[in-house]
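Feature request, filed as a ticket because there's no other form

It would be nice if the structure record came with a short human-readable summary line next to the tokens. Right now we just get the raw output. Example of a typical job, pasted below so the devs can see what we mean:
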Amino acid sequence: MPLRRRTSRLPRLLLTAALFGALVAPPAAAATTDRPPSARDVPLRVATYNIHAGAGVDGVFDLDRQTAELRALRADVIGLQEVDRHWGDRSEWRDLAGELARRLRMHVSFAPIYSLDPARPGDPRKEYGVAVMSRYRIVSAENHEITRLSTQDPNPAPAPAPGFGEVVVRVRGLPVHVYTTHLDYRPDPAVRVAQVADTRRIMAEDRGPKILLGDFNAEPAAPELAPLWRELADADPGAPTFPAQDPVKRIDFVAVSRGGPGTGITVRKAWVPESVASDHRPVVADLSVRGGRDR
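Raw output as currently delivered:
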């Protein structure tokens, strides 16, 4: 759910016929397996959750409710979207990422999409974005820019803006790159096309196991997502995620790097827990990571 929805005269970006052909193959799901992990496999449970600025399907802000839902996931790494940090009345001006991390005793990295001056001098900046929480130590973090169409500008134009968060977590000595994102919500896919291209370019700069978590605002077989599935595999949970009450489509994803020297990740299980603590349901995946040397 965006902060402010405005109708924009967005010029359509050039889309190739190959991308938007009449038939679009669905993404290849990451293979699940019951094979016992080897001594080199590192188990890791990850999740993605759009927390709707702390509000459930009833529109009520309730961080206690979301804390309980997140704790029940028992995840090692969680990507969050629609995260307020001193943003406004709707979330009681609180730092949601910091509070959730403290309550769950996890490390956290927050990547703002918007960082605005406070209403009063000396108050914290008003921020909104994405975050990664991790039980494992975060050894580095970066807030990348991707193409966005601002919800804060009355006449927006596509432009680079922050809010594509990346962290490196060290899991039993193995560096793993984790990214969290929130792609454009508008029906016109043009901005998402650019965002996918930016995402692939940024992720290509890194080596080793990679995990992309986020609200893509598009379903798995959407043409604009097709390029992602060249390097990533969809950890398909086999269930929709939105809206949380009686969901009808899956727009929330765990995606993992495909097999290769030092990069392969096996999805052992993925699922969508029932929850009405947000307007989305989370996606959870149990992974086995077989890594190599990081860059």
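Something like this underneath would help us a lot:
Residues 190-204 form the longest helix (15 residues).
The radius of gyration is 18 Å.
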